[in-house]
Amino acid sequence: MPRHRRARRTPPRAAPEERPVTSGRDAEQTPALTGTWHKVGTTPCAEKYPAVITFTGGTYRGARGSEQGMVWWDAGIHRLEGPRKLVLSTATDELVAYDIDVRGDEFTITDPEGCRFAYRRAPAAP
Length: 126
Prior knowledge:
The structure is a single chain. The chain is mainly beta. It has one helix at 24-29, and strands at 35-40, 52-56, 59-63, 75-80, 85-89, 95-103, 106-110, 116-121. An 8-stranded antiparallel beta barrel has the order 1-2-3-4-5-6-7-8. The longest helix is centred in the first third of the chain and has 6 residues, at 24-29. It is globular. The termini are far apart.
């Protein structure tokens, strides 16, 4: 009678470590994006991006303005890949890389089509 091998049980894997928005030497050059940001100005090509975006840990949530329809950044994950590259999951769950320039309480995004627009950090609640 053949001996049956017992299936070896592998221990459950730990959840992947969450990558911080900034790390290592990039942290000195790029402030954390954590918090709520409001879009500055009304560039027609940026209409598909949310009026307000909130970053927490490795996730984000976009909120549309009163005159906006569907927004391209609704909710998902994000990470910085270097001091000038932000990767976000879009409304279709595609990961898209954007150029980002963070300066104090404002950041400017350039999307893959060349649309350039900015967000300003919301004041801290009292």
